[in-house]
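pinned: reference chain
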Amino acid sequence: MKAGYILSQFAKSYCFTLKKTESRFVPILFDCSVQKVQIIVHFFMFLVFLKNSIIQYAYRA
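pinned: its structure tokens
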């Protein structure tokens, strides 16, 4: 799963202290940010990153 690896690397780059939980991807955004503003910023950055990744993957395929 290359997409899973990319997402995990992205999450690690924006979260200095990642909690090791069974549920992944979405909860990471809320676990690593204390302030609501940071959560929103990280979430939108995550959406932009996800959109760009999908576009790049679509052009490659």
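why pinned: Helices lie at 2-14, 26-31, 36-60. Residues 16-23 have pLDDT under 50 and may be disordered.
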